[in-house]
């Protein structure tokens, strides 16, 4: 026998990581909940004017999506 | 099988250990001893190809099997799942990819390392010695000829030490070879071995091969 093909090892790793993510389901939901909270709070913070929101929301939400992703990978995006 | 001459490794422009030279033939065991922090683990990582050496020559004909001093166990997976993953990830002998054979080999390995009673328990519930046994299980299903074992005896109880010695004996009798580090208190019993004492690159003594 020799070492398995790279694809075999990769599939084993992928399967294990999905299994690990499934074992910690609460952590999977964390970024989504974070995003929902931010999306809700953002207009309350800057004001409900449609012009203002049209200008700032896209950037704000994108940033929060990234931060949420950072939370789940354990490496929050820091600037 | 493994030949090393004047091998050294630098970190931040400073040698981690003094240059080492040795030859390791088939069926032989090299025991690397030395104080804490003298570079034993770094040497093994260089031999395993995880670090690039700075000077000297390293000739390793076949890819080695490296078992680090930290047991690679996922806390959220059971013992069986951990071992099964390792088998799929690193490959296993005598099964040719047959799932049933892999399953029975997995059960066999779990029994041989003495983890049958805790096979379904999560990794987080294991004691330090059980984690070590789980990590060492790879020695039973991989067929690499050269083993690089970093502090394999740490945390093992007497029975575990005897078990590891047996595994090692079989490996050496089959023409395998092994480089093993230890900081001194626990060492393999009843082996013919080469022993080398390592010194830190910050010290002044030379590498001594006995």
Describe the structure.
- Helices cover 81% and strands 0% of the residues of chain A.
- Chain A is mainly alpha-helical.
- Chain A has one domain.
- In chain A, α2 (25-46) packs antiparallel against α3.
- Chain A is elongated, with a radius of gyration of 19 Å.
- Chain A starts with 5 loop residues before the first helix and ends in a 6-residue tail after the last helix.
- The model of chain A has no long low-confidence stretch (mean pLDDT 83).
- Chain B has 210 residues and is α/β, with parallel strands linked by helices.
- Chain B has 2 domains: 1-64 and 144-210, Rossmann fold (3-Layer(aba) Sandwich), CATH 3.40.50.300; 74-142.
- Helix content of chain B is 30%, strand content 23%.
- Chain B has a 6-stranded mixed β-sheet, with helices on both faces.
- The longest helix of chain B is centred in the last third of the chain and has 16 residues, at 158-173.
- Chain B starts with a strand and ends with a strand.
- The A-B interface holds A 1-4, 8-9, 11-13, 15-16, 19-20, 23-24 and B 63, 74, 76-77, 81, 85, 88-94, 96, 143.
Count of helical regions of chain A: 3
Strand content range of chain B: 15-25%
The first-to-last residue Cα distance of chain B is 19 Å
How many separate domains make up the residues of chain B? 2
Low-confidence runs of at least 5 consecutive residues of chain A: none
Shape of chain B: globular
Order of helices and strands of chain A: HHH
Number of strands of chain A: 0
Question: Biggest sheet of chain B, open or closed, and with what strands and sense?
Answer: 6 strands, mixed
Structural class determined from secondary elements of chain A: mainly alpha
- Terminal Cα span of chain A: 48 Å
Q: Give the strand order of the largest sheet of chain B, numbering strands 1, 2, ... along the chain.
A: 7-8-9-5-10-11
Rg from Cα of chain A: 19 Å
Q: What's the β-strand tally of chain B?
A: 11
Main pleated sheet of chain A: none
What fraction of the residues of chain A are assigned to beta strands by DSSP?
under 5%
The CATH homology group name of the largest domain in chain B: P-loop containing nucleotide triphosphate hydrolases
The geometry of chain A reads as elongated
Chain pair forming the biggest interface = A-B, 15 and 15 residues
